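Note to self: the last two entries modelled the partners one at a time, which told us nothing about the interface. This time every component goes in together.
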Amino acid sequence: MAAETSVPASEEPLIQVEKFNYAYGDHQVLFDVDLNMHSKDVLALIGPSGCGKSTLIRSINRINDLVESARVVSGSIKIDGVDLYASNVDVINLRRNVGMVFQKYNPFPRSIFENAVYGLRVAGIKDRHDLEEAAERSLKSAALWDEVKDRLHEMATGLSGGQQQRLCIARAIALQPRILLMDEPCAALDPIATARIEELILQLRGQYTFVIVTHNMEQAKRIADRTAFFYKGKLIEEDDTMTIFNHPNDPLTESYITGRLA
Amino acid sequence: MKAPASTSRPSLGSLLLKKQQRPFLGIDKQRAIRLFFASNSSVAIIVLVLIMLFLLREGMDFLPTYRHELETYRRAGLEFCDIINRPLAEHQALCSKLRRAASASLNTLTHTARTRRDAAYELMREVEEETRLQRAILSDALAQIPAASPEKLTRLRQEMRAATTLAAARLQTPAALTPEEGRRLQRELTLLNPEVPELPPLLAALSADYIRVDREAHATFKPLVDAVEAFEAAPDALHTLLDAMKKHARETKAHVTELHGSGKEPSHSKPVDFDLSIVPLTSGITELTAKVEEYTLLAQKTADTMPAAAGTPQAVALLAEMRARLPDHLAAMRQAAASLPAWSHSKPVSYLEVAIAFFLGDAWITNSSWQDFFGFVPLLTGSVLIALIAVLIATPFSVIAAIYTNQFASEREQEFIKPVIEFIQAIPSVVLGFIGISLLGDAIKGVSEWGWLQWIPSFPIQERLNMFNAACLLALMAVPTMYSLAEDALNNVPRSYLDASDALGATKLQTVFRVIVPAAKSGIAAAVLLGMGRVIGETMVVLLVAGNRIAIPDFSAGPGVVFQPAHTLTGIIAQELGEVSRGSAHWQALFMVGIVLFLISLLVNWCARAFVRRFELAKS
Ligand SMILES: Nc1ncnc2c1ncn2[C@@H]1O[C@H](COP(=O)(O)OP(=O)(O)O)[C@@H](O)[C@H]1O
Ligand SMILES: [Mg+2]
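The predicted structure of the combined assembly is written out below.
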């Protein structure tokens, strides 16, 4: 199943990564990454373990700020022209607008409802009615509503793994972010749950800009408009998913997608 | 495929079988090793069981012993006397209220005169103090048997005069005296001399003035003063009769204990015939009832004739309170008298009564010439109240410190804070005890005297050593335990919760209070409980600092109750166990207290474990 190119190249990119160098202490993990991501695109990041995919997407919502040794060496990431690492950026607002879903599903040990509305609650929304509406909307978007609508006030940790991950997606989209970052969202799930998540991403596509890290080539082919291949902290090439998988430019890319790269 | 016969390798099948081992003392080696390790770990369990058995053995004897004591208490008639004696204690309380009301009233009239007189006395005392040396020399010289030479006396008199003049010149006139009076007193005081026995005239005048005013005040408040005296005297006749009965009962009891004490062979001398010895008491019931009736009538009459007016609003309130409490007291007295005929010295004391007397008894009285009571409630309330206050103080500190180190502090701060807090544990509790006695006690008392804090109930406080003081120190001792455990609990919160919360745009504070603390709450609750366990079992600090008053704290003081002294379960054991004779009821009572303490600790620990278990269940 091929994903079609949906964005004309002329449009201004939503996320611009420019000459981005990133390090944990003295250990540099990203080298001169240049990457543009367009609005409403689904971009897949692929590459062998340890090549810095997670580091890159964790730099986009600055969740890596929590890691004490992590630092930007040089270069910048801009969203809508705003340099994310400038001192005048409000990190809290950045995170409200750039949602994230983690590899290991991590709902809070509270009720399903409380999980779904957590982001709204911390944003200061108290009105019960608004919260209920938002919970329903986001759970519906995450295709979870029918499964949980009768037990919204039970512990989220009682759901199956796939449901928990979809709850995490619901929790992220409850804030109506512009961008959704997903770091191997299916890595901890079985094939059926994986298929449901992929279906969900395909449904949501066009509403959000997705950046998805994946180890699964087939998944990238199924869901991504564009694919970027990383190797040892460098962006080797980024192109239309079809082009990357059928006519890769770089021999490294080719050996990776054909499985010849360790 | 078979192995070639030439090789020495054993067949595969034989390798799969267990090797035959030589048994060691009939047990094979693997089992022996297992047993060795098992026995080591079971030592702890065995010791625990032994301790429990020992405690139980010593303590369980308490019930029969105490039962026997209570039985003697009944047989000998002490209980009989207490039926009337106990409610009569309220009379004392009411008397003290009346006395306070009367003295407050008198004070309104005599206050000025007394302060003036006292101020003048104070000045004289100052001069005497300043000239102490000269006085002593002069008095010695005067008292010398071959009289000192007149020249020497003159010189000494001159020196004395010079010293008094100097001292008097330095005096400040206190506010109670007018400047004119101050000057006059100064003048008179320069003449102060051991040879002159009279007071300085002004002082004498002030004194006389006070006496006059005081007499007038007594006249003014005569109805009140008389009423107080009459009320105090109301139970005199009752007391006389009761005292005679008490004396008789005590003698009977002394006889019994003597028989028991001397070699446990009552057959030698005649056993006490309780039926006979009780007669003087039971035959006096009518008289006693009559005396009680007489007292109630008398008390009621004085109360009725007592004026409602008094010198101060406070005094009026005291009178009103006394009047309000009197009917209950008198009713209790009458009821007590009415219950006398139903009392029987031969009624056996049941174990239930003994258990109630111990577990619900409100008095712990030992070495009494009358009767020992081992009531557990005052000690329990002391221990529990102190522990609760301590935990209430320690919890916010340790939990907030744990949150800070776990969530906000840099690595270097963590390396500093953790060992410092854990170091508190190394302070010997006796050292904390004398900090409480010497420093904290004065500090708390001092603070309680600050004017703008007087809205706090029961400020200024009376006692330096009180439950609050002990609780502060115990809180300090509990902080390391609670802090470490709370920190562990926070540490156990999966990091992914933090990431998730942050990624949803929560601030640090929101993450901490909406995600991390709730996720760690069972662990924190367990930390608090274990801190409580630590505090309840602590002995030295409470023994030194809690004030050791064996009485149920007066909860009518509201939250101010925490500033009262109290005794504790641990403190009483430490204090009294060394002094009692082995095997006596008192000794066994202390073991009983030990058992209950042990059970409380067990319960607290068990609860903490239950919390932790729930926490772990929720996590998985
Ligand atoms: N918190 C961290 N501290 C130090 N080094 C890290 C940290 N996270 C990742 N790294 C290092 O950065 C490199 C890139 O890691 P990551 O971005 O997780 O790669 P990927 O997601 O592509 O597998 C790896 O060498 C990893 O060891
Ligand atoms: Mg990764």
